[in-house]
Amino acid sequence: MTDDGKKGTKREYPVAPLVGVGTVTIKSGRILLIRRAFEPGAGKWSIPGGLVEVGEKLSEAAARETEEETGVKVDILELINVFDMIDLDESGRAKYHYVLVDFLSKPVGGRERVSEEVTDIKWVTFEEARTMDLTRTARKALEELFGGSVA
């Protein structure tokens, strides 16, 4: 299936790059991570996030996606980084192409729960995150924020 099931957005082999957002949400020294249910990154741990909707500000999209995926309401604090995520297929075509905007955030309410896009939620330390099977994009966001390599 090439659509994500929401609003008919074609994620595989898109006609243009898609804009995605994510949050590194920190509470009491622990980072909110989710295990992705769908590609790209199915089964891997990542930061909450998703696509920006038409007419939506980046920070609003990041807060909305975090709440939709985890039940956790957040306040966006600052920009972490903007970067490309491009996955090519065997023939060199862009199977996935995202421009990703990641933010630092703090929880301000809500109740933790998994959504249909998520199979698990964990609050982990940076040291614990370093040992987890993270998506490339989550690893990059954590490296940008905390410095050093997330192996």
Brief summary:
The chain is globular. Strand 2 and strand 3 (45-46) form a beta hairpin. The N and C termini lie far apart (31 Å).
Plain-language structure description:
Mean pLDDT is 91; it is low at 1-6. This protein has helices at 58-70, 126-130, 136-146; strands spanning 18-27, 30-36, 45-46, 49-51, 72-88, 94-110, 118-124. It is 19% helix and 42% strand. The protein is an alpha+beta fold. It has three helices and seven strands; from the N terminus they run E-E-E-E-H-E-E-E-H-H. Strands 1, 2, 3, 4, 5, 6 and 7 form a seven-stranded mixed β-sheet that branches.
Please specify the SSE layout and strand pairing.
Elements: E1 18-27, E2 30-36, E3 45-46, E4 49-51, H1 58-70, E5 72-88, E6 94-110, E7 118-124, H2 126-130, H3 136-146
List keywords for this structure.
alpha+beta; seven-stranded mixed beta sheet; about 150 residues; single chain; globular; 7 strands
Q: How many runs of DSSP E, i.e. beta strands? A: 7
Share of helix, binned: 10-25%
Distance between the termini: 31 Å
| Alpha plus pi helix count | 3
**Form type:** globular
**Could you say which structural class the secondary elements and strand pairing correspond to?**
alpha+beta
What's the helix-strand series? EEEEHEEEHH
Q: Whole-number average pLDDT?
A: 91
Strand content: 35-45%
Low-confidence stretches: 1-6
